[in-house]
Design brief:
The chain is α+β, with helices and mostly antiparallel strands and 135 residues long. Helices cover 39% and strands 20% of the residues.
Length: 135
């Protein structure tokens, strides 16, 4: 094969996703995929023995999502990340959207900041769609 085609370079498998994970975290990537999936993500806060409080978040095209709500939900799931501030988290969200070719509009209403995601159909895991490489 080498004599016929020369050196064949391996393709860059999931380069965008790997780069994004390097700048954020695997947990963040999984969180965003869950939030963008149909039905979103629900978390039950069981810190109160008598009541379990459900927290639900879902992103759907054209619907406003509070920046603080997106951040707070992530922090409930990852309380050990006290170093992660909302500004950095919002930058991660923007990086994620850019890597998935999702358009983000930012709005402000009644003193609260919102993100509106558009221009996408579904978020899929690239490993599910990965073609077999010859090597």
């Amino acid at each position: 094969m080498y004599l016929k085609h020369g050196v064949i370079e391996a393709g860059t498998i999931n380069l965008e996703e790997k780069t994004l994970v390097d700048h954020t975290s695997r947990d963040f990537m999984n969180y965003m995929k869950d939030v963008f999936s149909p039905g979103g993500l629900t978390y039950y806060d069981d810190s109160d023995e008598e009541h379990k409080y459900p927290f639900h978040i879902e992103v759907s095209p054209g619907r406003e999502v509070g920046k603080k709500a997106l951040y707070d939900f992530y922090m409930k799931l990852n309380p050990d990340l006290n170093w992660l501030k909302q500004k950095k988290f919002t930058n991660w969200v923007k990086m994620f959207a850019k890597s998935k070719h999702i358009k983000i509009d930012e709005t402000r209403s009644n003193g609260k900041d919102y993100l509106i995601f558009s221009g996408y159909a579904t978020i899929s895991d690239p490993q599910e769609n990965e073609e077999k490489q010859p090597f």
